[in-house]
């Protein structure tokens, strides 16, 4: 399949462009300091989805990406910090002409218990600054979210401290695998079928 993707990676080379119909965005903060934190479970799920491939810089964009194996989806990650994620995602979506309903965002969710994964389209950002940035830059809330539950902090712990602390919940690997599977199912089978399968787990 050919379209605009290869031009993103090597815009000065005259090569045919690879096709992508979807963006799968992992939300998190870059750098080793944040790698194992609750706020980075979106990165973790995206890493599982791309199956060991390295994300490659997209010249002229604040983003990295790689094609998801056996799909027409580009795994995309902003090189900004979480609160400015939209600055890396929206320009790529515009360049590839991918509409919001084909943008899947993997992210941590305070308002769901650890262990739960749910899929929805649109809705409020519930205070999540990464989602707020995406909504602002995309100009809509109508993108798809794969919500990875991290639960609320213990009484007396501020939310920023909770989300930026290491995630060590029992069953984390299973939850991350479910979130990666959720994104793939949306691409392969559509939103409703993906919801039916994931929400039954």
TrEMBL record:
<keyword id="KW-0378">Hydrolase</keyword>
<feature type="site" description="Discriminates between blocked and unblocked aminoacyl-tRNA">
    <location>
        <position position="29"/>
    </location>
</feature>
<feature type="binding site">
    <location>
        <position position="81"/>
    </location>
    <ligand>
        <name>tRNA</name>
    </ligand>
</feature>
<comment type="subunit">
    <text>Monomer.</text>
</comment>
<dbReference type="GO" id="GO:0072344">
    <property type="term" value="P:rescue of stalled ribosome"/>
</dbReference>
<keyword id="KW-0694">RNA-binding</keyword>
<dbReference type="GO" id="GO:0005737">
    <property type="term" value="C:cytoplasm"/>
</dbReference>
<dbReference type="InterPro" id="IPR001328">
    <property type="entry name" value="Pept_tRNA_hydro"/>
</dbReference>
<feature type="binding site">
    <location>
        <position position="34"/>
    </location>
    <ligand>
        <name>tRNA</name>
    </ligand>
</feature>
<comment type="similarity">
    <text>Belongs to the PTH family.</text>
</comment>
<comment type="function">
    <text>Hydrolyzes ribosome-free peptidyl-tRNAs (with 1 or more amino acids incorporated), which drop off the ribosome during protein synthesis, or as a result of ribosome stalling.</text>
</comment>
<feature type="site" description="Stabilizes the basic form of H active site to accept a proton">
    <location>
        <position position="108"/>
    </location>
</feature>
<protein>
    <recommendedName>
        <fullName>Peptidyl-tRNA hydrolase</fullName>
        <ecNumber>3.1.1.29</ecNumber>
    </recommendedName>
</protein>
<comment type="function">
    <text>Catalyzes the release of premature peptidyl moieties from peptidyl-tRNA molecules trapped in stalled 50S ribosomal subunits, and thus maintains levels of free tRNAs and 50S ribosomes.</text>
</comment>
<keyword id="KW-0820">tRNA-binding</keyword>
<feature type="binding site">
    <location>
        <position position="83"/>
    </location>
    <ligand>
        <name>tRNA</name>
    </ligand>
</feature>
<dbReference type="GO" id="GO:0006515">
    <property type="term" value="P:protein quality control for misfolded or incompletely synthesized proteins"/>
</dbReference>
<dbReference type="InterPro" id="IPR036416">
    <property type="entry name" value="Pept_tRNA_hydro_sf"/>
</dbReference>
<dbReference type="Pfam" id="PF01195">
    <property type="entry name" value="Pept_tRNA_hydro"/>
</dbReference>
<feature type="active site" description="Proton acceptor">
    <location>
        <position position="39"/>
    </location>
</feature>
<dbReference type="GO" id="GO:0000049">
    <property type="term" value="F:tRNA binding"/>
</dbReference>
<feature type="binding site">
    <location>
        <position position="129"/>
    </location>
    <ligand>
        <name>tRNA</name>
    </ligand>
</feature>
<keyword id="KW-0963">Cytoplasm</keyword>
<dbReference type="GO" id="GO:0004045">
    <property type="term" value="F:peptidyl-tRNA hydrolase activity"/>
</dbReference>
């Amino acid at each position: 399949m050919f379209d605009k993707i290869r031009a993103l990676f090597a815009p000065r080379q005259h090569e045919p462009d690879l096709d992508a119909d979807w963006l799968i965005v992992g939300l998190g903060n870059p750098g080793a300091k944040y790698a194992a934190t609750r706020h980075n479970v979106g990165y973790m799920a995206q890493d599982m989805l791309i199956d060991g491939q390295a994300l490659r810089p997209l010249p002229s964009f604040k983003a990295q990406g790689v094609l998801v194996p056996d799909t027409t989806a580009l795994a995309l990650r902003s090189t900004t910090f979480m609160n400015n994620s939209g600055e890396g995602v929206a320009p790529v979506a515009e360049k590839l002409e991918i509409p919001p309903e084909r943008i899947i965002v993997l992210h941590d969710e305070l308002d769901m218990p650890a262990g739960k994964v749910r899929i929805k389209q649109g809705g409020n950002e519930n205070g999540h600054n990464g989602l707020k940035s995406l909504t602002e830059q995309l100009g809509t809330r109508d993108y798809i979210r794969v919500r990875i539950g991290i639960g609320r902090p213990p009484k007396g712990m501020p939310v920023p401290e909770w989300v930026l602390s290491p995630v060590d919940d029992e069953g984390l690997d299973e939850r991350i695998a479910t979130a990666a599977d959720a994104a793939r199912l949306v691409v392969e089978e559509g939103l409703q079928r993906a919801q039916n399968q994931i929400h039954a787990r």
